[in-house]
Amino acid sequence: DFTLADLLAPEGYQAGGLAIGAHLSRSLRIAGEELDGAWGGVEFLQNVALGKPPDLAGKRVAVIGGGNTAIDAARTTIRLGASEVNLVYRRTRRDMPAQDLEIQEAEEEGLKMHFLVNPTRIVGNGKVEGLELTVQELGEFDNSARRRPHPIEGSEFVLPVDVVIAAIGQSTGGACLQGCGVESERSSAIKVDRQLATTREGVFAAGDAVLGPATVIEAVAQGNAVAQAVDSYLRGGEPESKDEWLAYREMPLPWNVDDYAEATRPEMPVQAPNVRRHNWQQVELGFSEATCLQECRRCLRCDLEEGELLSMRELVEAPSRGVEEHFDKTTA
Ligand SMILES: Cc1cc2nc3c(=O)[nH]c(=O)nc-3n(C[C@H](O)[C@H](O)[C@H](O)COP(=O)(O)OP(=O)(O)OC[C@H]3O[C@@H](n4cnc5c(N)ncnc54)[C@H](O)[C@@H]3O)c2cc1C
Ligand code: SF4
Predict the structure, then answer these.
(1) How far away, in angstroms, is 246 Cα from ligand 2 center?
(2) Average of pLDDT values for 78-95?
(3) Complete domains list, the chain, with CATH
(4) Ligand 2 centre and the CA of 300: distance in Å?
Protein backbone atom coordinates (compact mmCIF):
# COMPACT_ATOMS: atom_id res chain seq x y z
CA ASP A 1 0.00 0.00 0.00
CA PHE A 2 1.05 3.57 -0.58
CA THR A 3 -0.35 7.00 0.14
CA LEU A 4 -0.81 10.11 -1.95
CA ALA A 5 2.11 11.64 -0.03
CA ASP A 6 4.34 8.67 -1.07
CA LEU A 7 3.41 9.17 -4.72
CA LEU A 8 4.02 12.92 -4.65
CA ALA A 9 7.25 12.78 -2.64
CA PRO A 10 10.01 15.08 -3.99
CA GLU A 11 11.68 12.24 -5.91
CA GLY A 12 8.29 10.84 -7.01
CA TYR A 13 5.56 12.06 -9.37
CA GLN A 14 4.86 15.73 -10.08
CA ALA A 15 1.13 15.24 -10.59
CA GLY A 16 -1.52 12.65 -9.90
CA GLY A 17 -5.15 11.84 -10.64
CA LEU A 18 -7.73 10.42 -8.24
CA ALA A 19 -10.47 8.25 -9.77
CA ILE A 20 -11.59 6.31 -6.72
CA GLY A 21 -15.29 6.15 -7.63
CA ALA A 22 -18.24 6.33 -5.24
CA HIS A 23 -18.46 2.89 -3.69
CA LEU A 24 -20.19 3.36 -0.35
CA SER A 25 -23.96 2.88 -0.11
CA ARG A 26 -25.69 5.82 1.53
CA SER A 27 -27.34 5.09 4.83
CA LEU A 28 -31.16 5.23 5.16
CA ARG A 29 -30.75 6.95 8.54
CA ILE A 30 -33.69 5.07 10.01
CA ALA A 31 -34.01 2.71 12.96
CA GLY A 32 -33.22 -0.94 12.32
CA GLU A 33 -30.31 -0.55 9.89
CA GLU A 34 -28.13 -2.56 12.27
CA LEU A 35 -30.41 -5.63 12.02
CA ASP A 36 -29.19 -8.84 10.43
CA GLY A 37 -30.48 -8.82 6.84
CA ALA A 38 -30.26 -5.03 6.29
CA TRP A 39 -27.60 -4.33 3.68
CA GLY A 40 -26.30 -1.60 1.40
CA GLY A 41 -26.87 -2.14 -2.34
CA VAL A 42 -23.24 -1.77 -3.44
CA GLU A 43 -21.91 -4.00 -0.66
CA PHE A 44 -24.53 -6.65 -1.50
CA LEU A 45 -23.63 -6.59 -5.21
CA GLN A 46 -19.93 -6.59 -4.37
CA ASN A 47 -20.30 -9.74 -2.25
CA VAL A 48 -22.18 -11.49 -5.04
CA ALA A 49 -19.52 -10.45 -7.57
CA LEU A 50 -16.77 -11.70 -5.24
CA GLY A 51 -18.42 -15.12 -5.07
CA LYS A 52 -19.89 -14.67 -1.57
CA PRO A 53 -23.64 -14.44 -2.28
CA PRO A 54 -25.98 -14.52 0.73
CA ASP A 55 -28.49 -17.36 0.90
CA LEU A 56 -31.74 -15.77 -0.30
CA ALA A 57 -33.58 -18.95 -1.29
CA GLY A 58 -37.24 -18.55 -0.29
CA LYS A 59 -36.66 -15.12 1.32
CA ARG A 60 -38.78 -11.98 0.85
CA VAL A 61 -36.73 -8.96 -0.14
CA ALA A 62 -37.35 -5.20 -0.24
CA VAL A 63 -34.96 -3.08 -2.31
CA ILE A 64 -35.15 0.65 -1.65
CA GLY A 65 -34.35 3.12 -4.42
CA GLY A 66 -35.15 3.97 -8.03
CA GLY A 67 -31.77 3.97 -9.76
CA ASN A 68 -29.75 1.43 -11.70
CA THR A 69 -28.09 0.08 -8.56
CA ALA A 70 -31.53 -0.65 -7.07
CA ILE A 71 -32.62 -2.44 -10.24
CA ASP A 72 -29.34 -4.40 -10.41
CA ALA A 73 -29.74 -5.42 -6.77
CA ALA A 74 -33.37 -6.46 -7.30
CA ARG A 75 -32.59 -8.54 -10.40
CA THR A 76 -29.68 -10.15 -8.56
CA THR A 77 -31.90 -11.18 -5.62
CA ILE A 78 -34.36 -12.71 -8.11
CA ARG A 79 -31.50 -14.81 -9.53
CA LEU A 80 -30.45 -15.84 -6.02
CA GLY A 81 -33.85 -17.49 -5.56
CA ALA A 82 -35.72 -14.94 -3.40
CA SER A 83 -39.40 -15.89 -3.20
CA GLU A 84 -40.63 -12.29 -3.46
CA VAL A 85 -38.75 -9.14 -4.48
CA ASN A 86 -40.26 -5.70 -3.86
CA LEU A 87 -38.90 -2.41 -5.10
CA VAL A 88 -39.81 0.51 -2.86
CA TYR A 89 -39.54 4.03 -4.30
CA ARG A 90 -40.69 7.30 -2.78
CA ARG A 91 -41.59 8.96 -6.08
CA THR A 92 -43.43 7.70 -9.18
CA ARG A 93 -42.27 5.35 -11.89
CA ARG A 94 -41.55 8.10 -14.39
CA ASP A 95 -39.29 9.81 -11.83
CA MET A 96 -37.05 6.75 -11.51
CA PRO A 97 -33.47 7.46 -12.65
CA ALA A 98 -32.98 3.81 -13.72
CA GLN A 99 -33.10 3.04 -17.42
CA ASP A 100 -36.62 2.31 -18.68
CA LEU A 101 -35.58 -0.90 -20.39
CA GLU A 102 -34.01 -2.24 -17.19
CA ILE A 103 -37.14 -1.41 -15.18
CA GLN A 104 -39.31 -3.17 -17.74
CA GLU A 105 -37.04 -6.24 -17.82
CA ALA A 106 -37.03 -6.42 -14.01
CA GLU A 107 -40.84 -6.34 -13.94
CA GLU A 108 -40.96 -9.11 -16.54
CA GLU A 109 -38.75 -11.16 -14.20
CA GLY A 110 -41.28 -10.74 -11.37
CA LEU A 111 -40.19 -7.60 -9.50
CA LYS A 112 -43.09 -5.99 -7.60
CA MET A 113 -43.00 -2.19 -7.65
CA HIS A 114 -44.32 0.02 -4.84
CA PHE A 115 -44.39 3.74 -5.65
CA LEU A 116 -44.95 6.78 -3.43
CA VAL A 117 -43.82 4.98 -0.28
CA ASN A 118 -40.83 5.85 1.88
CA PRO A 119 -39.21 3.62 4.51
CA THR A 120 -39.45 4.97 8.06
CA ARG A 121 -38.21 1.98 10.09
CA ILE A 122 -36.81 -1.50 9.63
CA VAL A 123 -38.76 -3.79 11.91
CA GLY A 124 -37.29 -6.86 13.60
CA ASN A 125 -35.75 -8.46 16.62
CA GLY A 126 -32.09 -9.16 15.87
CA LYS A 127 -32.97 -9.80 12.24
CA VAL A 128 -35.16 -8.09 9.67
CA GLU A 129 -38.86 -9.00 9.86
CA GLY A 130 -40.44 -6.13 7.96
CA LEU A 131 -40.09 -2.66 6.51
CA GLU A 132 -42.32 0.12 7.77
CA LEU A 133 -43.39 2.39 4.92
CA THR A 134 -45.15 5.74 4.88
CA VAL A 135 -47.33 6.66 1.91
CA GLN A 136 -46.23 9.85 0.13
CA GLU A 137 -48.06 12.52 -1.83
CA LEU A 138 -46.39 14.72 -4.40
CA GLY A 139 -45.93 18.41 -3.68
CA GLU A 140 -44.00 21.24 -5.31
CA PHE A 141 -41.25 20.74 -7.91
CA ASP A 142 -37.74 20.44 -6.52
CA ASN A 143 -34.44 21.36 -8.21
CA SER A 144 -34.37 18.00 -10.01
CA ALA A 145 -37.57 19.08 -11.87
CA ARG A 146 -39.50 16.31 -10.14
CA ARG A 147 -42.32 16.81 -7.65
CA ARG A 148 -41.16 16.46 -4.08
CA PRO A 149 -42.77 13.61 -2.09
CA HIS A 150 -44.30 14.43 1.31
CA PRO A 151 -45.39 11.86 3.91
CA ILE A 152 -49.09 11.40 4.60
CA GLU A 153 -49.52 11.36 8.34
CA GLY A 154 -50.88 8.14 9.82
CA SER A 155 -50.41 6.18 6.56
CA GLU A 156 -47.66 3.87 7.89
CA PHE A 157 -47.89 0.15 7.18
CA VAL A 158 -45.42 -2.74 7.41
CA LEU A 159 -44.30 -4.76 4.40
CA PRO A 160 -43.29 -8.18 5.74
CA VAL A 161 -39.79 -9.00 4.42
CA ASP A 162 -36.68 -10.90 5.55
CA VAL A 163 -34.09 -8.72 3.79
CA VAL A 164 -33.84 -4.96 3.17
CA ILE A 165 -31.35 -3.62 0.63
CA ALA A 166 -30.80 0.15 0.57
CA ALA A 167 -29.77 1.49 -2.83
CA ILE A 168 -30.55 5.18 -2.37
CA GLY A 169 -27.23 6.59 -3.53
CA GLN A 170 -23.50 6.23 -3.13
CA SER A 171 -20.72 8.32 -1.68
CA THR A 172 -16.98 8.47 -2.05
CA GLY A 173 -15.02 6.78 0.71
CA GLY A 174 -13.13 9.68 2.23
CA ALA A 175 -10.91 7.60 4.53
CA CYS A 176 -8.02 7.50 2.06
CA LEU A 177 -8.21 11.30 1.66
CA GLN A 178 -7.98 12.14 5.36
CA GLY A 179 -5.24 14.63 6.11
CA CYS A 180 -3.78 14.72 2.60
CA GLY A 181 -5.03 18.18 1.64
CA VAL A 182 -7.71 16.99 -0.79
CA GLU A 183 -11.00 18.51 0.32
CA SER A 184 -14.47 17.12 -0.31
CA GLU A 185 -17.88 18.71 -0.85
CA ARG A 186 -20.67 18.08 1.67
CA SER A 187 -21.97 15.40 -0.69
CA SER A 188 -18.59 13.60 -0.22
CA ALA A 189 -17.59 14.29 -3.86
CA ILE A 190 -14.00 15.49 -4.21
CA LYS A 191 -13.86 19.29 -4.57
CA VAL A 192 -12.36 20.33 -7.93
CA ASP A 193 -12.06 23.53 -9.96
CA ARG A 194 -12.90 23.93 -13.66
CA GLN A 195 -9.64 22.18 -14.63
CA LEU A 196 -10.51 19.24 -12.33
CA ALA A 197 -7.69 20.27 -9.97
CA THR A 198 -8.32 19.36 -6.33
CA THR A 199 -7.42 21.57 -3.39
CA ARG A 200 -3.99 19.89 -3.25
CA GLU A 201 -1.40 21.24 -5.67
CA GLY A 202 -0.71 18.79 -8.51
CA VAL A 203 -3.59 16.45 -7.66
CA PHE A 204 -6.54 16.13 -10.03
CA ALA A 205 -9.71 14.05 -9.80
CA ALA A 206 -12.28 12.59 -12.17
CA GLY A 207 -15.22 10.22 -12.51
CA ASP A 208 -17.77 9.25 -9.88
CA ALA A 209 -15.46 10.57 -7.16
CA VAL A 210 -16.17 14.05 -8.56
CA LEU A 211 -19.58 13.64 -10.21
CA GLY A 212 -21.19 11.35 -7.66
CA PRO A 213 -22.68 8.13 -9.06
CA ALA A 214 -22.85 8.71 -12.81
CA THR A 215 -22.14 6.59 -15.88
CA VAL A 216 -19.16 4.92 -17.50
CA ILE A 217 -19.26 7.27 -20.46
CA GLU A 218 -19.21 10.35 -18.21
CA ALA A 219 -16.28 8.92 -16.25
CA VAL A 220 -14.39 8.23 -19.49
CA ALA A 221 -15.08 11.78 -20.71
CA GLN A 222 -13.72 13.21 -17.47
CA GLY A 223 -10.72 10.88 -17.73
CA ASN A 224 -9.92 12.48 -21.09
CA ALA A 225 -10.40 15.96 -19.66
CA VAL A 226 -8.20 15.28 -16.64
CA ALA A 227 -5.42 13.87 -18.84
CA GLN A 228 -5.47 17.15 -20.78
CA ALA A 229 -5.48 19.17 -17.58
CA VAL A 230 -2.52 17.24 -16.10
CA ASP A 231 -0.59 17.59 -19.36
CA SER A 232 -1.13 21.37 -19.34
CA TYR A 233 -0.22 21.57 -15.66
CA LEU A 234 3.08 19.75 -16.23
CA ARG A 235 3.89 21.92 -19.24
CA GLY A 236 2.96 25.04 -17.32
CA GLY A 237 0.39 26.24 -19.85
CA GLU A 238 -3.35 26.69 -20.18
CA PRO A 239 -5.35 23.58 -21.09
CA GLU A 240 -6.26 23.29 -24.74
CA SER A 241 -9.85 24.26 -25.45
CA LYS A 242 -12.13 21.23 -25.47
CA ASP A 243 -13.49 22.45 -28.82
CA GLU A 244 -10.05 21.98 -30.35
CA TRP A 245 -9.30 18.49 -29.15
CA LEU A 246 -12.77 17.19 -29.85
CA ALA A 247 -13.07 18.96 -33.19
CA TYR A 248 -15.55 17.37 -35.58
CA ARG A 249 -13.72 15.97 -38.56
CA GLU A 250 -15.40 15.67 -41.91
CA MET A 251 -15.00 12.16 -43.27
CA PRO A 252 -16.18 10.76 -46.56
CA LEU A 253 -19.19 8.48 -46.17
CA PRO A 254 -18.89 5.44 -48.37
CA TRP A 255 -22.65 5.13 -48.88
CA ASN A 256 -25.71 7.31 -49.19
CA VAL A 257 -27.03 8.13 -45.74
CA ASP A 258 -30.44 9.10 -47.14
CA ASP A 259 -31.00 5.51 -48.21
CA TYR A 260 -31.16 4.62 -44.52
CA ALA A 261 -33.10 7.65 -43.25
CA GLU A 262 -36.20 5.57 -42.56
CA ALA A 263 -34.34 2.59 -41.11
CA THR A 264 -35.46 1.71 -37.61
CA ARG A 265 -33.34 0.25 -34.83
CA PRO A 266 -33.54 -3.54 -34.91
CA GLU A 267 -35.01 -5.28 -31.90
CA MET A 268 -32.44 -7.03 -29.73
CA PRO A 269 -33.29 -10.69 -29.10
CA VAL A 270 -33.35 -11.49 -25.36
CA GLN A 271 -33.66 -14.54 -23.13
CA ALA A 272 -37.28 -15.16 -22.07
CA PRO A 273 -38.01 -13.69 -18.59
CA ASN A 274 -38.83 -17.09 -17.07
CA VAL A 275 -35.55 -18.50 -18.31
CA ARG A 276 -33.23 -15.59 -17.51
CA ARG A 277 -34.52 -15.13 -13.94
CA HIS A 278 -32.89 -18.49 -13.16
CA ASN A 279 -29.50 -17.90 -14.75
CA TRP A 280 -26.62 -15.40 -14.83
CA GLN A 281 -26.17 -15.33 -18.59
CA GLN A 282 -26.36 -12.05 -20.46
CA VAL A 283 -30.00 -11.09 -21.06
CA GLU A 284 -29.38 -9.73 -24.57
CA LEU A 285 -28.48 -12.46 -27.04
CA GLY A 286 -26.82 -10.23 -29.65
CA PHE A 287 -27.61 -9.51 -33.28
CA SER A 288 -27.34 -11.99 -36.10
CA GLU A 289 -24.62 -11.46 -38.70
CA ALA A 290 -27.24 -10.25 -41.19
CA THR A 291 -28.55 -7.61 -38.74
CA CYS A 292 -25.00 -6.47 -37.96
CA LEU A 293 -24.30 -5.95 -41.64
CA GLN A 294 -27.52 -3.99 -42.06
CA GLU A 295 -26.62 -1.82 -39.06
CA CYS A 296 -23.15 -1.11 -40.46
CA ARG A 297 -24.77 0.17 -43.62
CA ARG A 298 -26.93 2.71 -41.82
CA CYS A 299 -24.06 4.13 -39.76
CA LEU A 300 -24.39 7.92 -39.92
CA ARG A 301 -21.08 9.25 -38.69
CA CYS A 302 -18.25 7.37 -37.22
CA ASP A 303 -15.27 8.34 -35.11
CA LEU A 304 -13.23 5.41 -36.36
CA GLU A 305 -10.16 6.39 -38.32
CA GLU A 306 -10.78 6.77 -42.01
CA GLY A 307 -8.79 3.61 -42.73
CA GLU A 308 -11.07 1.60 -40.49
CA LEU A 309 -14.12 3.20 -42.03
CA LEU A 310 -12.89 2.12 -45.42
CA SER A 311 -12.39 -1.40 -44.19
CA MET A 312 -16.04 -1.33 -43.06
CA ARG A 313 -16.92 -0.33 -46.61
CA GLU A 314 -14.97 -3.34 -47.85
CA LEU A 315 -17.04 -5.46 -45.49
CA VAL A 316 -20.28 -4.05 -46.82
CA GLU A 317 -19.14 -4.58 -50.38
CA ALA A 318 -17.97 -8.13 -49.69
CA PRO A 319 -20.18 -9.31 -46.79
CA SER A 320 -19.34 -12.95 -47.40
CA ARG A 321 -16.04 -12.37 -45.57
CA GLY A 322 -18.06 -12.15 -42.38
CA VAL A 323 -18.20 -9.87 -39.38
CA GLU A 324 -15.56 -11.72 -37.36
CA GLU A 325 -12.92 -11.27 -40.01
CA HIS A 326 -13.71 -7.56 -40.15
CA PHE A 327 -13.34 -7.08 -36.42
CA ASP A 328 -10.20 -9.23 -36.29
CA LYS A 329 -8.74 -6.82 -38.80
CA THR A 330 -9.92 -3.53 -37.28
CA THR A 331 -9.19 -4.35 -33.66
CA ALA A 332 -5.83 -6.07 -34.16
C1 LIG B 1 -24.60 -1.40 -9.44
C2 LIG B 1 -24.15 -0.39 -10.44
C3 LIG B 1 -24.62 -0.47 -11.73
C4 LIG B 1 -24.20 0.45 -12.69
N5 LIG B 1 -24.67 0.33 -13.96
C6 LIG B 1 -24.21 1.18 -14.90
C7 LIG B 1 -24.62 1.04 -16.25
O8 LIG B 1 -25.41 0.17 -16.60
N9 LIG B 1 -24.10 1.91 -17.17
C10 LIG B 1 -23.21 2.88 -16.83
O11 LIG B 1 -22.75 3.62 -17.69
N12 LIG B 1 -22.81 3.03 -15.55
C13 LIG B 1 -23.28 2.21 -14.59
N14 LIG B 1 -22.86 2.35 -13.29
C15 LIG B 1 -21.98 3.48 -12.96
C16 LIG B 1 -20.54 3.21 -13.36
O17 LIG B 1 -20.11 1.97 -12.84
C18 LIG B 1 -19.67 4.35 -12.81
O19 LIG B 1 -20.21 5.60 -13.19
C20 LIG B 1 -18.24 4.27 -13.34
O21 LIG B 1 -17.69 2.99 -13.10
C22 LIG B 1 -17.37 5.35 -12.66
O23 LIG B 1 -16.03 5.18 -13.06
P24 LIG B 1 -14.83 5.67 -12.12
O25 LIG B 1 -13.59 5.33 -12.86
O26 LIG B 1 -15.06 7.07 -11.71
O27 LIG B 1 -14.94 4.81 -10.79
P28 LIG B 1 -14.97 3.23 -10.59
O29 LIG B 1 -15.29 2.50 -11.85
O30 LIG B 1 -15.87 3.03 -9.42
O31 LIG B 1 -13.48 2.89 -10.22
C32 LIG B 1 -12.89 3.33 -9.03
C33 LIG B 1 -11.72 2.41 -8.70
O34 LIG B 1 -10.93 2.98 -7.66
C35 LIG B 1 -10.61 1.96 -6.73
N36 LIG B 1 -10.34 2.58 -5.43
C37 LIG B 1 -11.21 3.16 -4.57
N38 LIG B 1 -10.57 3.62 -3.49
C39 LIG B 1 -9.26 3.34 -3.67
C40 LIG B 1 -8.07 3.57 -2.89
N41 LIG B 1 -8.13 4.17 -1.72
N42 LIG B 1 -6.89 3.14 -3.39
C43 LIG B 1 -6.82 2.52 -4.59
N44 LIG B 1 -7.90 2.27 -5.36
C45 LIG B 1 -9.10 2.68 -4.91
C46 LIG B 1 -11.83 1.06 -6.73
O47 LIG B 1 -11.52 -0.22 -6.24
C48 LIG B 1 -12.19 1.04 -8.22
O49 LIG B 1 -11.48 0.05 -8.91
C50 LIG B 1 -23.28 1.46 -12.32
C51 LIG B 1 -22.81 1.53 -11.01
C52 LIG B 1 -23.23 0.62 -10.08
C53 LIG B 1 -22.71 0.71 -8.67
S1 SF4 C 1 -21.54 4.63 -33.13
FE2 SF4 C 1 -20.21 5.23 -34.79
S3 SF4 C 1 -20.15 3.38 -36.06
FE4 SF4 C 1 -21.89 3.15 -34.73
S5 SF4 C 1 -23.60 3.96 -35.88
FE6 SF4 C 1 -22.85 5.61 -34.62
S7 SF4 C 1 -21.44 6.68 -35.94
FE8 SF4 C 1 -21.75 4.71 -36.86
Answers:
(1) 16
(2) 97
(3) 13-22+171-245 (3.50.50.60), 29-167 (3.50.50.60), 257-331 (no CATH)
(4) 6
